[in-house]
Structures are given as C-alpha cells and as structure tokens.
Amino acid sequence: MKRTERKRMYDRLDGRNIKPEFLNGVTEFIEFCKEHPSCGDGDKIRCPCPLCDNRRFYDVETVRLHLYKKGFVRNYYEWVCQGESFGEPASRVQTNPYRDMVIDALGNNQEHMLNEEVDVVEEEPNGEAKKLIDLLKAAEDPLYEGSNLSVLEMASRIASLKCEFNLQHRCVDGFASLMNDAIPNNNQMGRTFNSTKKVLHGLELPHERIHTCPKGCLLFWKADAQLDKCRLCGSDRYRKTSRGKLIPAKVMIYFPITPRLQRLYATKNVCEDMTWHAKNPRVQNTFAHPSDSEAWKHLDTTFPDFASEPRNVRLGLCTDGFAPHGKFGSQYSCWPVILTPYNLPPSMCVKKPFMFLSLLVPGPKNPKGHLDVYMQPLIEELKRLWEVGAMTYDISSKKNFNLRAAVLWTISDFPAYGMLSGWSTAGKKACPYCMDKSKAFWLEHGGKVSWFDCHRQFLPQGHPFRKNKTAFCKNKVNGMGPHIMSGEELWQCVKDLPKATDGPEALKKLKTAKKGWFKQSILWELPYWKDLLLRHNLDVMHIEKNFFDQLINTVMDVKGSTSDTANARKDMAKYCKRRQLELENGSKTMPKAPFALDKAQKKVLCEWVRDLKFPDGFASNLSRCVNLQSCKLHGMKSHDCPVFMERLLPVALVELLPLHVWKAITEISQFFRDLCAPTIKMSDIDRLDKNIAEILCKLEKIFPPAFFNSMEHFPVHLPHEAKVGGPVQYRWMYPFER
C-alpha cells in the first residue's frame, strides 16, 4: 500500500475529538492483523503505539484503545511487524542512494527507516538518519584535493588519540589548528576539537543518566522518577553546591545494549561472523568455543524457537570494581557491567571491540547487595530482548529480522559472584556447589575457615584414601560428594526470598537468619534463567592466582604470607596425626616442614627466576619480582602467576623439594595447564574430573589445614564447569580486567 494512502494514520485529532478517518484507519489496521495471525502471539497482536513501539503484545481491544489515545509510532507506514512486506517488487522500486548506508549504521528501527519509495514520495529524513547521511557524505570527501584521508577518518583518529592519551581539549585544539595551517588551504580540516566532534556526531549511540539514592536503595526511575527523597531510607536526591545550585547526589549511566547489537548486524565485515557458530563445522567431543558447550546446546534444545534463528545473540555478563583514580587517588570504586556476544568466531570473541559497557555504577563504595538495584534497566531490556526482540536490518542478506538475545552466564571474581548470585561467599558455606552440605570448619587457633579433608568425598568408592584415618582428619569417615542442584531446585530455594529492591531492612532480616542466601538475585527475573545449566562461573584466573600465591608463599616460608605458622601447627596437632611437625620446647620451636625451603634453597630459586629470559609477550620481566635480600617473590601480575604455576613451578622445585612433595605440586600445576588449554577434549575433562580430588588429597597429606581456604577447594568443581561451559578463556576475567 502506498504511503500516501495511510496519511490518515497521522491525522488523528479534530480539536479534542478523534477524526472518523483515523477511526477507520485503526479498524483497517485491526482487520489486517486478524488476517495475519502468524505474526501475533495467540490472540494477541503487536501494539504499534509510540509507547509500545511494536515490542509488546496485547489483545485487539487494548491495542485499539492505545492507538486511540497515543496514535501510531512515527513513520510506520508499512506494517512489517504485523506481516506486511515492503512496497513493490525490487525491480520496480526506485531507491535513495543513501538508504542502504543509513540502515548499515542504524539497523532497521522504525524511527530510522527511509522508505523504499522515497523518490516517489519525497520526504526529509528524520533527524538521526540525516545526521548519519551527513556523516557518510563526509566519509566520501577527501581531507583536501589529492589526500588519501577522508574527513571522517581524520576526525575519528583525532578523537581516538585524545581518548587514548587523555589529551586536554586545548591541546587537541592547538594540534588541529597547526595541522590546518600545515596542509593545503582548500582543506576541510576543523580548527578545534568541537568541530571535529561534529563530524562524528551521527555515530553516537544512546545513553541514559539515571539518578540514584546515595545509599543505593533505589533508582529515581519509572514510578519513582518524580521523588525528591528516597522512599526507603529518606536520603535526599539532590545536594547543594557552594553556589546554591541543586545537583543529583549520585548518577548512574546506562547504555542500552539493543542499538549496539543492531550495529553489529549493520556492519558488513562483522555481520557474517555473527552466525559463525551455526555455519562452522564442529569437531565431535572437542570444546573450542562456547557453542560447543552443554550449556549452549541445552539452551537451544529447551527453546527451539530461539535456536531456530542463528542470528539471535548469546551474551556473557561480567562485572568488577575498579578505582578510576588508581592507587594514588582517593579511595573510590565504581562498577562497570559489561556484556559480550558469543556468536563471533574465536579470533573475535571476547575481544575489546565486542565488549559493550551497559552500566556504569557510581561509587565511592562497593554496591555489594545493592548491585541488583542498579541493574534494573538492563534486566528490563534483556527481558524485552528475549520476549519481544528488536527489528534489525541484516546488511549481509539485505533483510529485516527480529533480533533476540539471552545471557548464557555471568563472569566475575568471587566477591562479585555473591553480588550477582545472592549466595554468601564467606564463611563455611562459601562454596556455591557444596552449599549447606559443605564440610568446611573453623580452625580453633588459626581463626579461619578451612576446607581441609573436604575432598575425599569426591573420590570413587574403594579408593585407599577413603579409609586413611591418620593422614587426614583424625578418625573421620567420608561420605559421597554433594549433589549439584539444578536451576529448578535453586529456584525453589530462592523464590520466596526478598529482593534488593525491597529495601535494606528486608535483606537485613534474611542475613540474620544465616541461610547462605542473602537475597533473591534480580537475574531470576529473566524467563530462561532457571533453565540454564551454568548461571555463574567460578573465575579460573583468580582461583589459579590465589592458589599459586598460597603455594609459593608457603613453600618459600614468606613471613606474614605463609600458611605454616605456630597457630597452624597447633591446629595440625588437633586435627591430624603428624607428630614430626608438632611444636617443640613448650610450643616455641617449629620443626622444619618437608614442603618448606631453607634460606640457601630460597636464594637459589630467586637467582634462577632473576636470570630467566622469555620470548616477547610470553610473560613480563620476572626479575623485577625477585627480592634477593629477603629471598621472596613479590608483585607478580595476574598473567605472570599462571605462567609460573603452569610452566615454571615443576622445573623450579624439582631439585629443591622431596620427591613426594614435588610430585603433588607438579600434578596441580599440570591440572591448571590442561584446564586452561584453548581447545579441550571431553576425554581430557573426564580425566581432570577424575584426578583433581586425588591431587587435592595428596596436597592435604603434605600441607597444614590452614593452607586450604576456599580457593584451594574450588578446583574440585572446575572440570564440571569446563564440561558445561566449554574453554575457560571465554569464561574468566582476563579479557575484561585488561
């Protein structure tokens, strides 16, 4: 149908009354929807009013009422969401030369579309499309006659350099003016940074600034948008400056994820890669990508309608705190929430260009249990992307499709694990797999929780370690390992718990109950969350780093960091039968442990590390981490620890430790090396799952109970996560922290 025939859709009111022509147009729309039931949801149809924007389904009468009150969404002359195809056949349609380029950059949102028949019915493009058209025109214009650089390329490189080196505006203005004088006079180079920014204006993606309660109780958003005080704690929304001006006390920045996902399909060289997971042939029983994992396949099996469209996006969600001012600034911690798509091939997946900042939670303090309050806009958008989707233009096929998205899992360090999941990550119940069945205990003298002798239960029945009553806890009998709860079982545990949005008082009551849970995570609002096999990942990066730090500091007997102390020996005498290591001379003298190096051995090790040379990019300069005076290693970066743990540790200690100690350390080193392989086979995962409990038991026979905190326990669960989630490099914090 011609656009001119539907002009009445936007001629609604005659004074206070609705025009009969508009009423007839709504009736025509309703009848058209009834003729195309396949584009609806049962008896419901998409509502094209400006508020619903074809994202929500309602019954016919509700849609009619919405249209009477609000009218149609702007420029919706083709009812594509209700089943109507675009205009005339392609052979007879005259197109605007900039139309495809506009859709390339913006996707096919109704407010961004330029009609196929724009030459027939001339219309000015809307503001956002016009900005992009101007930008694309600038992309074609050379900086000056004979130049290989376009105006757009020069502007983008200037903006990039300013951000990368944190240059001041005046500095950029000076260089821009200098370059303007240096190149020929007939150039299109701006003399200031502001003129440069105007060239890039059309590429901007939307963001929203949302005022928040200073204590993190609520967002001044939606129903609470007009409040001046927090309705939960009474804190003021605004504060006065020295000049008496009111400014918001705390502001969160929200970056909608939908336009960023649409932009992926509007970029020619990325669009085709977004379906790599569906096109690329797979190797049976080999994990090289998240799409090989059981979690991905289970989601596809559970929701076949979602899996039927390979362009639908699977996302990973990551959060972590950082100090923007560094260690020399004031103590301030803000929390970004990042989403990354897993549809891309390994060479592009979890790389910097495809990590999308969705929330920037302000400081100065850790949000802790209130993180869910800040995540409300993101969760609402993720629910909409799952239930309704977003109309998107695929530049590779030149067709529109309904884009949907799902979060596969979250990625975080262990404290943030608790903030996202709602499970307390401290105390005896810290393990989110063992939960209430944990056999951890408080050390009487050390005053810490120990996971000593918590791993024999994972050994097969009949294993000789199970009957050993001297090397482990005295006279302790081990049962079977705890059952890993399914999503439905976990939902039954949390469905009646209070949420962070219910206020601090409700959470305080739950915390005093000491059930392990301290809230119901907002992620449970996602319709598919309880159907996922893996909701939260244990971060292998931090586990391996903490394991290495504990191991090397104990072996090198670093004062203040070793787990082999006088109190540890007292606890060892209480829980174990190791007479040769108990304190002597009235609890003052500590016999030398077989796992500890003497001063001469420590010096040999430090000199060996100091003289190491690595290929470029393999590791940093480890010689800076060596202190020959105190004979210890310090200040290793997060990347250096795995290099040492997986590659150097067995070589470094082979001539310094007794054989049985060296073998146990070598086995845990090999475990992390195999687990972190970029491609891992199912047979290797089964082998790791079978061996890790025995390896930890061997370490328990050597080291004191104080050695085994939660980070020394978590490796027993990592093979299971590898089997469910695939290779660890897509599920750990390295790329996000970098």
From TrEMBL:
Q: What top-level branch of life does the organism fall under?
A: Eukaryota
InterPro entries linked: DUF4218, Transpos_assoc, Transposase_21
Q: Entry's PANTHER family? A: OS08G0208400 PROTEIN (PTHR10775), PTHR10775:SF191
State the protein's name. Answer: Transposase-associated domain-containing protein
Domain (DUF4218): give its ranges: 675-738
Where the record annotates domain Transposase-associated, the positions are: 9-84
> Which Pfam families does the record match to this protein?
DUF4218, Transpos_assoc, Transposase_21
